[in-house]
Amino acid sequence: MPYVAVKGGERAIRNAEALLKAKRRGDSAVPELSLEQIKQQMQLAVNRVMAEGSLYDPDLAALAIKQAWGDLVEAAFLLRAYRTTLPRLYYSKPLDTSEMAIQRRISAIFKEAPGGQKLGPTFDYIHRLLDFKLAAEDNIFPAPASEEYDATAATPRVAQTLEQEGLVIPPETAVNQSRTEENASQTGDIIHSTGEGQSPDIEPFDITRQSLTTPTNRDARLQNLARGDEGFLLSMAYSTQRGYGKNHPFAGEIRMGEVEVVISPEELGFDIAIADIAVTEVQMVNQFKGSKEIPPQFTQGYGLTFGYNERKAMAMALVDRALQAKDLGESLDGPAQDEEFVLYHSDNIEAQGFVQHLKLPHYIDFQAELNLIRKLRRDYEQNTSKSESSDGWQKEEPDEMESFA
Amino acid sequence: MSSSPASSSPSNSPPAKPEPGFNFAYLDEQTKRSIRRAILKAVAIPGHQIPFSSREMPMSYGWGTGGIQVTASVIGQDDTLKVIDQGADDTTNAVNIRRFFKKVCGVATTERTEEATLIQTRHRIPEIPLQEGQVFVYQVPMPEPLYFIEPSRTEANKMHALEEYGPMYVKLYEDITKFGRISLAYDYPVMVNGRHLMNPSPIPRFDNPKMDMNPALQLFGAGREKRIYAIPPYTEVKSLDFEDYPFAVENWDHACEFCGATDSYLDEVVIDDRGGRMWICSDTDYCERRQQKRSGTTKKLA
């Protein structure tokens, strides 16, 4: 009897799910992973899932990773789908990353930076040799005693040194001259502005509550990039380094640690710290030769991610800078500078869905296409046999040719 | 192939209690309200795409999340829902979406086109004409009809604003010069209410004429692209064509193998590995009802 893969009842779907669960568990003689193990020992996976899932919750991210069979994009999708159901109670105040309890902080542009540098836990200078000892279990790796470090002391940003001299455009004035009323009326509600330094009564754009339309501004772009796929941003950032929208960046500062999340409910009238979250923040410093309106100076690319997610944060900063080309009047030569191209293709939840939707039945459209191709071939054969009158394309089954009314 | 009386189908079920732990129709009320606002705007400007803040759903983008969000925002406890994919109620994706709404709404479901108050579809319009009062929801992958001519949405928006649809006609004209006919088999662009160029979603062009002056409210949801558009009841919908190359739909040299219909959209089914084919109605409801009338039994693909 015919094999018809696209039809299947609830039973087939239920069985597929049961099979997935069984396969995911693997050999039941091997102990099951606990969420705590994932959260503790696969922290970077948890961080990536929180960043791209756009929800800071290590427990749920660990659950998502377990449920997704270790597929991090699928895990981020699970987290996003859960996130949808959560009510939006408050917007936090902007994170103050200068008050970060720093675990890691480096700058590549000054030998010494006020506040000091701190390598922290990093792969950077480790020889990438497979550690066969790690294959054995019950290893104990004591953390080295670090110098006394006052985590509560504020650490100024390296870029401030340049800002004081006027050599770098402060973020709040750098872009957004292009922001217009038209943009706000399109989205319906709020006139919004970019991140830092905005006046408090202007709401930043929220791509999870407003529909992202282009052209847009830096606040929407940054939010999009912060949730964007790490691999996509990495390749986009890399392309700028190889000449597609070239703009040489310097790592002004990379810092990672915990920051306080503060809300200020109107009905209370005072601030409440609701959580400490770990974030990675990157400020890139890029050259800018100036334009008619703007004197030569440095510009900044900004990256921020949930958790320890340095590769992504750096890539984000490079892409953020590339996307400022429009506002700075630079020529647009590379795909990374194309706002629409980057913003509409960065989200892996959207991308994985649309690429994989090709698995759904398309036999109606394919039938229509089949009818058309047969018709076109018939036209072609008639034309060929008319002009050559021999040895044209042979019709194999002429009685099966379709016709259009 | 199996024979069964139509009434035993699991797709026809009375209302039941939704599964606890979800808001009715999954989305929170604020979100549903914001989507309904977008729908109202869409109805006010037929064929014009309205941006909306599409949410992640528990199904993948590209798998009907736009239609699902539209359905979720307009569905009520008293609705009777029909879900089809490729014209059939029993395709995996249709089953899955129906299962979702049963779970989060507990509404009654049906396969009978005329019994449904709300129909969600992918790729087809049923053969049985829609009626006044019905809401017909399309799942839309690419809402922008100009996307293969102008991939930039910023530019495409300008073209819509200026009614600059010449490039689309040029594309159709080029088809005629190259192939002697317009080589669009589905996703065939339409002009709505004489003003907005609209993508009908990937229905075959066979279905395009059904959109014109349709008594039902037709809503289109594109989840990933975050756009909603609509055709209000009794709105003119015209498939693009030229005076000397009028729009035409395909027909078949075959009748449906099961019900004998010659007026429906047929699926070509490969029945063996020697090139054997049969043709059957894509609309399973239409086909089964005709079979019932003829012989009292129904055949369908197992």
Q: In the residues of chain B, how many domains can be counted? A: 2
Strand content of chain A: 5-15%
Largest interface comes to: A-B, 61 and 74 residues
Classify the secondary structure makeup of chain A into a structural class. Answer: alpha+beta
Could you say which overall geometry of chain A the principal axes of the C-alpha atoms support?
A: globular
Order of helices and strands of chain B: EHEHEHEEEHHEEHEEEEEEHE
Q: Strand-and-helix sequence of chain A, N→C?
A: HHHHHEHHHHHEEEHHHHHE
CATH architectural label of the largest domain in chain B: 3-Layer(aba) Sandwich
The average pLDDT of chain B is: 92
Which secondary-structure class do the elements of chain B indicate?
A: alpha/beta
Radius of gyration of chain B: 20 Å
Helix content of chain B: 25-40%
Q: Please state how the strands of the largest beta sheet of chain B are arranged side by side.
A: 2-10-9-6-5-3-4
- Whole-number mean pLDDT of chain A: 84
CATH top level of the largest domain in chain B?
Alpha Beta
